[in-house]
Amino acid sequence: MPKLKNSKAVLVVDIGNSQIKVGLIKDQKLIRFLKTDTSLDLGRRLFKEQLIKKFQNINIEGSIIGSVVPEKTLFFNNFIKDHFGISPYLISSKTKLNFCISKNVAVNEIGNDLLALACYCANLKAKDVIGFSFGTASVGIYLKNKELIGGIIAPGIHSSVNCLIQKAHLLKKIEFNLFSHLTIGYDSKTAIESGLFHMRLGLIFSFSQFIKKNYSIRQTKVIVTGGNATDFQMKMIQYDGSAILFGYKIIYDLNH
């Protein structure tokens, strides 16, 4: 985890296409955390009660909302104002970042979540950093000397599995472990689980190798996060399931 400058207790909301994550970060630690599906009706009384209960009895000094689903942003913006008396920081074109963006990159097509991931990567000491977020889509980005050079987008794990199940009738009744570390399978279930493991790992290795070759570098730091990510337990790959939350915290610090 990169070092964070501000020791305030900050409520961070990460609204993704599939999941919403709400975390309270203080003194470089994620001290409270709540996760739900983005498809959930946020106006339900039960969810509001869960939010209040999870983050009550603590002095919340600031908040930031990062979102790729605009219609969900309004709910959290109003909720945090009403219940915690804080106006959350919302990312805009004027937001200060700790990295620059290559002129070849379409700035207006970069989602808040990737800005946060890039901030997390730029806050590390490494010169060359590759960040992967495995969520609704599988996304990789490359930063060189704190400059976002570009990235890749591939279908997400869930969408790939769902597409396969829809096309293969005999697979419809099989439940899969999407986070299995099987290197080889011995039946349909384990073979698919192994395939999903290699899909992620193969994407990481392929992108990393081409970056090394094309930019004439010997070593890169690789960060992996996202709701469909897994800890590969490999020295060259650093897993941090909260990287995007901490990235948003970095953005908050830079703009306060």
Automatic annotation (TrEMBL):
It comes from the Bacteria. Its cofactor is K(+); NH4(+). The active site is at residue 113. Its EC number is 2.7.1.33. Pathway: Cofactor biosynthesis; coenzyme A biosynthesis; CoA from (R)-pantothenate: step 1/5. It catalyses: (R)-pantothenate + ATP = (R)-4'-phosphopantothenate + ADP + H(+). This is Type III pantothenate kinase. The gene is coaX.
